[in-house]
Design goal:
alpha+beta; binds cobalt (II) ion
Amino acid sequence: MIDAKGIHHIGIAVHSIDEQRPFYENTLGARFEGTEEVPGQQVRVAFFALGPPGAEVRLELLEPMSDESPIAKHLAKRGPGLHHVAYAVSDLSARLQALKSNGIPLIDEKPRRGAHGNAIAFLHPKGTHSVLTELVEPGVY
Ligand code: CO
């Protein structure tokens, strides 16, 4: 079992963080928390937070840094919009092993480094009823 502790963030694929930032910040009223580059995925991410500190929900905008980025491929195929749902978990390595031995298809069989020093892994949408699903173990690296 994944035993999700909550929604960690919702990922949204965008062509340009700068272009969309005013909507999230000024129209929606979310707090901009900064951007970070994740070179391994050739992606630049921006986080926005909603809700009280300690219990906030975050939105993650993902902008490709090159045509090799999985986000560039997603944008080319499906255009901008909802990309993934990320759940907070503990013991990510053990969860992935258990999922694998239960036959759940994984994109990442081992945790890798995401933004903010979090360990992350993606499950394959064919095992999650077509919703690209990310598991996040905060603050590992
Ligand atoms: Co994410």
